[in-house]
Amino acid sequence: MGHKPVATTRMKSKTIYFVAGEASADNHGAALMRSLRELDVDLDFIGRGGPQMRAIAGGQFKNWIDDAAVLGLWEVIRKYGYFRVQFHETLNEVQKTKPDAVVLIDYPGFNLRLAHAVRKRSPRQKIIYYISPQVWAWNRGRIKEMARSLDVMLCIFPFEADLYNKSGLRTVFVGHPMIDRLRAQKIDIKRDTNLIGLFPGSRLREVRKIFPVMLESLPELQKQNRDMRFEVAAASGELAHEMRKMLDQRAQDQQGIQIKVGETAALMQRAFAGIVASGSATLEAAYFRLPFVLVYKVAWPTYLAARLVIQHRARPDAIVKAVRRLIENADVRDRMIAEFDTIIGKLGEGGASNQAARAIIEEIGRKIDMKQIN
């Protein structure tokens, strides 16, 4: 008597298409990929991001960070042709590969448009946004549009979840991904009252705009205190080389200025005050409780279009005045540090990447269940 053959099925690997356009998003994306692999080893990662994500994903993943990371409206306009090509390439790749999920990491100028276009072409495509764009700060009207384009928003600030949920967009608060990374970089060290930390950014174009303004403020600060020293955080050897060239071109006395590569966290814990370029470094400084002056500078066409008052105030004399207040006024320092503690206390207890990974796997599973029902 023969046996009836038994049908066997092999679980198909799941594919996630990522889009990250800046160095910080590459950090967060790589951590998320590692957490996803821990939950489900049978995952394929495709898309575009930076070198860390590519190292995990493999050869099919595109590293476009150097070209994609731009600062300001004018810089985007200059590279409009490049972004137009990349946008359509990405859209076509998503449609061709039909991933189980598209995960968009920050980078709202590109990713929000992409989400809308993907939804229009492929209504059933699962689209997840990680590190929500700060539309609550610049355009709340876009939230309803986002609710139509996205399946779920993974937020890193708790108040964002309430804001997005009201619009009908399902939202999960996962905590801030920097908490785990910075916690591991804490050191037990006393602050040097004569040391000022300079943090001019992690991108070359940003450094070229902001570092010269920082340098102009240093002679006046040293006049107030001859023992004052300055250390500059360089995110890479390339940026350190560029900074040294700027110092040489200015014929500035370099006795009290040292450039440190890859020591941002340590410098934030040793310095007595900081001068920080706008960006993720501001939140890092808050985490390490470093009182700082914020500097933000963009191309003049961007300034004229946006009327940014901060741009006008990014002057050496204003920086000197603000730094001196932080150094000399203990009440000002204490108030700023207290505000830091309040902010950091709201960012979760850590494990953001793990929580985001679980939410993504759950969302993919939700899609599979719908298919089975249909």
Structure described in brief:
With 374 residues, this protein is of the alpha/beta class. It is built from 19 helices and 12 strands. The strands form 2 sheets. A 7-stranded parallel β-sheet has the order 3-2-1-4-5-6-7, with helices on both faces. Strands 10-9-8-11-12 form a 5-stranded parallel β-sheet, with helices on both faces.
Present the secondary structure layout.
Layout: E1 14-20, H1 23-39, E2 43-49, H2 51-57, E3 62-63, H3 65-68, H4 73-78, H5 80-97, E4 101-105, H6 108-121, E5 127-130, H7 135-138, H8 142-149, E6 152-155, H9 158-166, E7 171-173, H10 178-183, E8 192-199, H11 204-224, E9 229-234, H12 237-250, E10 257-261, H13 264-270, E11 271-277, H14 280-287, E12 292-295, H15 300-306, H16 309-313, H17 316-328, H18 330-345, H19 352-373
Helix pairs in contact: 1-2, 1-19, 5-6, 6-8, 11-12, 11-17
Overview of this protein structure:
The protein has 19 helices and twelve strands. Helix content is 55%, strand content 17%. The longest helix is centred in the last third of the chain and has 22 residues, at 352-373. The chain starts with 13 loop residues before the first strand and ends with a helix. The strands form two sheets. The protein has a seven-stranded parallel β-sheet, with helices on both faces. Helix 1 (23-39) runs parallel beside helix 2 (51-57) and helix 5 (80-97) packs across helix 6. The radius of gyration is 23 Å and the shape is globular. The model is unreliable at 1-10, 298-312 and 368-374 (pLDDT under 50). By secondary structure, the protein is an alpha/beta fold. The chain has helices at 23-39, 51-57, 65-68, 73-78, 80-97, 108-121, 135-138, 142-149, 158-166, 178-183, 204-224, 237-250, 264-270, 280-287, 300-306, 309-313, 316-328, 330-345, 352-373, and strands at residues 14-20, 43-49, 62-63, 101-105, 127-130, 152-155, 171-173, 192-199, 229-234, 257-261, 271-277, 292-295.
